[in-house]
Write a structure and sequence with these properties.
By secondary structure, the protein is an alpha/beta fold. The protein is built from 13 helices and 12 strands. The chain has a domain of 233 residues: 3-Layer(aba) Sandwich (Rossmann fold), CATH 3.40.50.
Length: 351
């Protein structure tokens, strides 16, 4: 069996769905259940003997050690993180606590357990740390995409905290021999995405007749990765990745923020046309850019394709259509996550 941390979040819950669709190997999900950790993402597995949820903090060494000792997993996959750049600008402290201190405590708990294993079990054990392309900083329009050898140049509190966690994972491998793997992904989108991020925010605002906020001139470029492609990539790295290595995971789909919003509007015009015949694009509103906003991210995913045979199955068009349809078909989930706290956050951020 394996232990997943942060598995009630967006990427973690999609990983669990993918894992349990492919295998009968059990998962324990350790999640603090903060605002973005939603047990409803995994309701389909309620009563499934292969899945169990434990509410707790990766920084709680007593709890983590107990779980490791009792269940003796063959791997730990770490999704647990504060992950929203805007929130990190308003309140960086939580990002330091979870992403840096939390990763340190988790590594120490896992190292203590790993050192008790037999030689054979030590060799087969894996600690997989899920990170982001934002640790590499920003790219100029004509620069080649980020490879695994790019220097770290984080520009936001979130990116800096994730860069620090990546360095800790690397150090625990080189100093203590812990068998680690690190993945750095581009922007994800898909089902169960908490609607503070661009794509779900735009979908829900559009349907509600609200402004569709775009930072600055909307020409920031991101490489978009469908979350289920990401989940499949993580499973592939866990299966066959080279211990100590980093694998960049990208969708090969660079888009400006403005073009993403315009594409969402176009799909909604077809799937849920307005009664007055107007386009959802009429709701686009440009807002003040956020501090330190990176201009372009792009991932060179040639290593994981070359070494592990993974490449994305979805294009941006196919993945986005599935995503929009999911939000249209899951209004109860949307209503539950867009609570009063969420509304206050959106008002604070976008005015």
């Amino acid at each position: 069996m394996i232990i997943v941390t942060g598995g009630a979040g967006f990427i973690g819950s999609n990983f669990i769905h993918t894992w349990l669709e492919q295998t009968d190997e059990p998962i324990i999900n350790l999640d603090k259940l903060t605002y973005a950790g939603n047990p409803e993402n995994l309701l389909v597995f309620q009563g499934d003997k292969r899945y169990s949820l434990v509410q707790g903090d990766i920084g709680d060494r007593t709890l983590v050690t107990r779980l490791l000792t009792e269940h003796r997993p063959r791997a730990v996959v770490n999704f647990a993180a504060e992950s929203h750049v805007d929130r990190s600008i308003h309140g960086p402290g939580e990002f330091i606590t979870t992403n840096i201190n939390g990763t340190f405590h988790l590594l120490e708990s896992v190292r203590g357990f790993w050192e008790t294993l037999t030689t054979e079990a030590k060799q087969s054990f894996r600690f997989l740390h899920v990170s982001t392309d934002e640790v590499y900083g920003t790219l100029t329009p004509d620069a080649p995409p980020f490879s695994e050898t790019n220097p770290y140049e984080p520009n936001s509190p979130y990116a800096a905290s994730k860069a620090a966690s990546d360095h800790l994972v690397r150090a625990w491998h080189h100093t203590y021999g812990l068998p680690v793997l690190t993945t750095n992904c581009s922007n994800n989108y898909g089902p169960f995405h908490f609607p503070e991020k661009l794509i779900p925010l735009v979908i829900l605002n559009a349907l509600a007749g609200k402004p569709l906020p775009i930072y600055g001139d909307g020409q920031q470029v991101r490489d978009w990765l469908y979350v289920l492609d990401h989940a499949r990539a993580i499973i592939r790295v866990l299966e066959s990745g080279n211990v100590g290595d980093t694998y960049n995971i990208g969708g090969n789909q660079e888009k400006t923020n403005l073009s993403v919003v315009q594409t969402i509007c176009s799909h909604l015009d077809a799937l849920r046309p307005k009664t007055d015949g107007s386009s959802y694009s009429d709701q686009i509103t440009f807002v003040k850019d956020r501090p330190g906003h990176d201009r372009r991210y792009a991932i060179n995913a040639s290593k994981i394709k070359r070494e592990l045979g993974w490449e994305p199955q979805e294009t941006f068009e196919s993945g986005l259509k599935q995503t929009i349809k999911w939000y249209l078909d899951n209004q109860q989930w949307v209503e539950h996550v867009t609570s009063g706290d969420y509304r206050q956050w959106v008002q604070k951020q976008y005015g």
